[in-house]
Amino acid sequence: MALIESRVDLIRLESKDVISDGVRRAIYVAVACGALLSAWALLLAGGISLIAETAGWHWNLVALGAALLHLVLGVIMVRCAATPPGAAAFPVTRSEFKKDREWIENFHNPRKSND
User: Fold this and answer.
1) Distance from the CA of 17 to the CA of which of 32, 65, 86, 113 falls in 20 to 30 A?
2) 1-28 confidence digits (pLDDT tens)
3) Angle between helices 59-82 and 48-55 (to 10 degrees)
4) What contacts 24+ positions apart, CB below 8 Å, involve 28-33?
5) Which pTM was predicted?
6) Residue 7 exposed, middle or buried by CB count within 10 Å (0-12, 13-18, 19+)
């Protein structure tokens, strides 16, 4: 029974790491969405007309440049959110389960003294 309790405790500890990684990714996605929406609204409304008037460019060229900038920012944020974690989930638990399987196999198939 102690073996099962220790495995459950180990899963509980490693679950905290997995949850924190998920929260980190969710924060990246939320920041990316907020940045893209805010940048789109603010820059398109005021920046395009200001740059077009000041530089003497056509407003549509300025709008395309702003769109490209926002696209690059969005791709960077999505890549940050999609970065795989440093290691597989539950590495210690997997290792312990593997050791347990080996022990059970050896327990059921004991070696002969002549081996």
Assistant:
1) 32
2) 777 888 888 888 888 888 888 899 999 9
3) 130
4) 28/77, 28/80, 28/81, 29/77, 29/78, 29/81, 31/77, 32/73, 32/74, 32/77, 32/78, 32/80, 32/81
5) 0.42
6) middle
